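Internal QA ticket QA-208
Title: Verify multi-chain structure generation after dependency bump
Assignee: T.L.

Test input:
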Amino acid sequence: MYKYDSYDHAMVADRIAEFRDQVTRRLDGRLTEDQFKPLRLMNGVYLQLHAYMLRVAIPYGTLNSTQMRTLARIARDYDKGYGHFTTRQNLQYNWPALVDIPDILDRLAAVEMHAIQTSGNCIRNVTADPFAGAAADELEDGRPWAEIIRQWSSFHPEFTFLPRKFKIAVNGATADRAGIRVHDIGLQIVRNEAGQTGFEVWVGGGQGRTPRLGHLIKPFLAPEDLLSYLTACLRVYNQHGRRDNLYKARIKILVEALGPEEYGRQVDDEWRVIRAGELKLPDAEIARIRRFFDLPKQVEPTPIPVTENRAFARWLDRNRRDHAVDGLSSLVISLKPIGGTPGDITDRQMTAVADLAERYGFDEIRATPDQNLILPHVRNGDLEAVWSGLVDAGLATANAGLATDIVACPGLDYCNLANARSIPIAQAISTLLEAEGLSEKAGDVTIKIDGCINACGHHHVAHIGVLGVDKRGEEFYQVTLGGAFGTDAAIGSIIGKGLAGEDVPAAIARLLHTYLEIRADEERFIDTLRRVGSDAFKEAIYADA
Amino acid sequence: MKTVTANRLTDGRVIYRTATGEWTTELAEAARLDTDQADAVLELASGESHIAVGAYLIELARDLPGGQKWRREGIRLTGPTTGSTHAHATA
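Actual output:
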């Protein structure tokens, strides 16, 4: 993985010193809250319902065991012994004191981490396929490109005060696991007819209040032109984005207003001016960054173990993924224990994951947009040892991709913006589906829950989405059907009136029972839904409402 | 009845303003304010941003958070309703 150079170290150290001074001035009254708020947000510090929240950047979701151990120690020493992995492959601490945050940032910097640009109207942490560099279906590892974008966008003076936040994702595999069509810019690595690799550029996707799928504005962008083209995209947005209206300030609104063709034409006009200039990426620099992301050295082509241990076999079946290298597997560590809080992990569990990654996983860990973790490279001969370690740590839930692998935003239990709780709904759904055996029977189904329309929990792109709303002090939940996050990206449609929170788990259970009754052979839930339409499920959802 | 709440500057914890102008983490110790008093006390509290961030009024019903924001303020008072991780981590 990427290693900081002296410039990176100095840049982060300078920023922490600056923020430490800002905190001191806020505490002694030299800065008002109005003056301090934008400064703390630039350093990932929010003020939530109960406490400050610190959002730590995990660039393209990649971290090593030393970094994970540091995250664990911070959770233990400065928080309540746990952290929360988010859908943007970051980690949030829910309880840090403001007075401690500069010291926390020092600890992060010592292991080449920070919280810069995890908030504010800037280019946020770049996300990527969490299986990048390991996936069997990969054309090219997207992480070197994500790292190049990270370096270009960090403290970019022109793009520090954009009309709104800006999110970029990179995907290098056949299957889209980065959600390129629901990002402000999505980059899909492709190969053209001449056999050269480059990027499809998708612009104007996003979720939130106005969910939109991105538009393809450049079918093939040569790698050396990546930064000049991104600069042109950002410049057009920076100039014409709606700064007058918070709800219309994202690039998706601009692209829709101009039309993707006109937006693309304006980008091309700008690009022609700057394309041959200093932003052209030198081959040597691309090669230098790529060397940080080598695959593990050749391993013995050991087969997947055949086992009579049913729990191990079930976990292998659900949580193991094929690897690009014969003899290796990638493993999903579910952070979705039945009835637990999606994405939460205790300090002890973080340490256990770090130990397993160091001993068996080539020292690499990934955070996923589904709020899980991945050990991307594990020898097949070590699979049982890893599983055993995860069992001991309480992290061996065999439900990756199942209906109990629920994504949920923090909701009204933590978040200042939320209208309704989401975690307790996730917990109740998980518990009921497991009790009825539906998680296993229904197979691949995505359920994602949000406590407000900002959609941090990605309900718009779930097969079954749940959106909490507040009606005169009472929580209600709208169900959406038919969304999808990946290659077949789609925005779900609201199925009908909102349900009371206590009615949601049973409604989803009835919906899945209906699916099991009407599916053809081994048809997946989303395929059945697309074949028969959502009306076939409406009666089940509202049967007892 | 109403009372004034905010988040403590140093650590963000939920606090309430007492009748004597102090700040406390205990709702039971918070001032109970009539509607005609409330705005004046809020104005005083808003001037104490070196202690309390984002002061605002909440409604009370039988000494607990009331009105349309009763659930939000109830969660601020007693903590997340999510159980597991927090309980496990602090056990």
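Spot checks passed. Chain B touches chain A through 30 residues (CB under 8 Å).
Status: verified.
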